[in-house]
Amino acid sequence: MNIPQSSFPRVVIIGGGFAGLAAAKGLEKQELQVVLIDKHNYHTFQPLLYQVATGGLEPDSIAFPLRKRFNDVENFYFRLANVIKINPDKNGIETSIGNIDYDELIIATGSTTNFFGNTNIQKHTMEMKSVPQSLNIRSLILENFEEALLTSNLEERKALMNFVIVGGGPTGVELAGALAEMKKGILPKDYPDLDIRQMHINLIQSSGEILKGMSAKASEKAEDFLIKLGVNVWKNLRVLDYDGKVVTTNGEDNFRAETVIWAAGVKGEMVDGLQAECVIERAARIKVNEFNQVVNHPNIYAIGDIACMASKENPYGHPMMAQPAIQQGKLLAKNILAKLANKKQNAFIYNDKGSMATIGRNKAVVDLPKWKFQGVFAWFVWMFVHLFSLIGFRNRAIVFLNWVYNYIRFDRETRLIIRPFKKKHSANS
Amino acid sequence: MNIPQSSFPRVVIIGGGFAGLAAAKGLEKQELQVVLIDKHNYHTFQPLLYQVATGGLEPDSIAFPLRKRFNDVENFYFRLANVIKINPDKNGIETSIGNIDYDELIIATGSTTNFFGNTNIQKHTMEMKSVPQSLNIRSLILENFEEALLTSNLEERKALMNFVIVGGGPTGVELAGALAEMKKGILPKDYPDLDIRQMHINLIQSSGEILKGMSAKASEKAEDFLIKLGVNVWKNLRVLDYDGKVVTTNGEDNFRAETVIWAAGVKGEMVDGLQAECVIERAARIKVNEFNQVVNHPNIYAIGDIACMASKENPYGHPMMAQPAIQQGKLLAKNILAKLANKKQNAFIYNDKGSMATIGRNKAVVDLPKWKFQGVFAWFVWMFVHLFSLIGFRNRAIVFLNWVYNYIRFDRETRLIIRPFKKKHSANS
């Protein structure tokens, strides 16, 4: 890894997502050597990935180069690498670019798509947890429309214009809404030869309500918004399989569709090397105490999606979202500094600031602890919060400009197939 | 292809670059059926590709969706396809999505990189004619810097930080300048552990001057600017080979470098099916008369880079640049309309509006027919012209915003490895 030995303790952070970034910020400019490892050289603002997938934003404006954030920080080292294994006994980790020892280790690897062991679904559906994956979805949507133009087989054309989104959480809802807006304003203009009535957007939720983590009012209103936008919302329907052609369910309805997006679950992005008792196998999360310390390992911490801190309010761990991740990262940084200074550490208490989801133009739902509201104002609040949560002035300015443009023009202009997804042979041409 | 038969004559245009787009615009809203075929679903503004390669602009802001440009035009059909072959005898073409007949055919396939038959060079160097290729260069630059951090072998590190750009035309000069600015302002901050003095940018030109097509003053001044920016300019040096490790030349100097960008030549992007007498084999260009008609084929035209119209001023055809392409496209559209109306067609006369190249911040060279100037004012002229040549309000606004930001902050913020180039196994992760 070629990182110099220092007289300061070394803190290694795996992952530059919301949690890892918050921890790294809290540890900068201290008597510490900080090593941040990520498999990408940028931080991804995941809440806006769906807009990249649907042509509303450029990928570069929701990603931020990690080196840039820390390039004026001494004793800070970023390394682009995949972590292979942790060796807690040796206080070291193995990575794709060599081994490194740590004094304190922070695991902030985040989460990955959970296919619940169904390899067919894993093979044939699209996921949307990273920028490249979102770009793949964008390419596939447009490639399927191009293909729909060419076939004279009606069933095939319908399948190419049929979209199935599995999972009615925020990701599925926001993506379904954005697709519905593409159907409304953009695709009929771009593809006047296609009968846009043959385009269907199906959102499938296994339980009886979408946006399960939010209030009943938000859930109902979101469903209402989706239906108004022309999305078919299927509740109490469970997807059993997808062979690349037909989505089979436990109900009467099966779906012939060429584009299936799997947003039905996430699990921790597990790293190897921890003992079985530290890990909740099923959720792929790491058990931590109220200080985010991993069971039996006083100098290993897990924060964010990968961490499972059972509490009275959240017996199965906190929701796998940005807020708990940021809050845990911030507190952990303080606690590590306190620990090294032999001061008292504080237990984590989640401050639930609320949650929100956007369905489309002027349509969002917001649950604040003391106030729940939906509609136009909620939509502006959603935009405001997301804009100011982005890192970097340039990103904010460009996202703002795109949003204003898209709002005024009813448009999504970045509908480019930069890297074809289907035709892999031409990926570099 | 699924394009309906119409009572109007059908004009098929192959290629949505500067030439094809200009022709398509000139033919819209006439008593014609127009079919535009391109292998991308967007028009690429090639003059700014080097800024995508060096992290100054997002790819989406220099590309424009072709469907959007024509989505309110009747009798206009865009098809995403590769053209396989032309069958002049049958007035038809074969494509990756089927065959199509034409009444009039416009070949506007543009140009591709010319490796002059050297397969080693083709295999190991990078080219920069398309958006994906530019993104590959961006990824490679950053990946090599990441790798340079890891090696303790000095020779290897130097090779990873050594950049060779072959070809001193506008592309090579602009790219060398942009890299030099990355060396100055960005890379030392992002990679404080590397000795930036080990980064070298070599621009190799086989003849005695760079920017050969421009005035002697522009050429000298551009060289001067490059040298001030720290670029090693090698003139009268010819690259013979590159095995992926070492660039060998006909001089004393060979270059061990991991990043070699080939900007030493272009040739036409030839399509199969034309008779030998229509084609200039060596340059891969199609011989046309002063009406851009292909020899012996009164209803086939070639325009832009692919066309070679020998004239007194340009005995080997016009320069392979945007201006002749746009002018030929415009005139051809008029001529085709005139031909169908049995009116007089006009011969093409190239109106050379001048040429320009930017080397870096406040440093550009501009040759106008009656006025040649260099420096700060030239740089502003360059920016103004390029900004207003972009298609679409959104693209212009976003490029402008990026330029202002980059200028004020001395920054290039889109230095993201979205799709790794070297580590192909992780291309979709």
From TrEMBL, chains A, B:
Enzyme Commission designation: 1.6.5.9
Reaction(s) this enzyme catalyzes, per UniProt: a quinone + NADH + H(+) = a quinol + NAD(+)
Domain FAD/NAD(P)-binding: residue ranges: 10-329
Keywords: FAD, Flavoprotein, Membrane, NAD, Oxidoreductase, Transit peptide, Transmembrane, Transmembrane helix
Molecular function GO terms recorded: NADH dehydrogenase (quinone) (non-electrogenic) activity
SUPFAM superfamilies the record matches: FAD/NAD(P)-binding domain (SSF51905)
Keyword Methyltransferase: no
Bilayer-crossing regions: 376-393
All residue ranges annotated as the External alternative NADH-ubiquinone oxidoreductase-like C-terminal domain in the record: 353-408
Domain of life: Bacteria
PANTHER family listed in its UniProt record: EXTERNAL NADH-UBIQUINONE OXIDOREDUCTASE 1, MITOCHONDRIAL-RELATED, NADH DEHYDROGENASE
Family: Belongs to the NADH dehydrogenase family.
Designated name of the protein: NADH:ubiquinone reductase (non-electrogenic)
Organism: Polaribacter reichenbachii
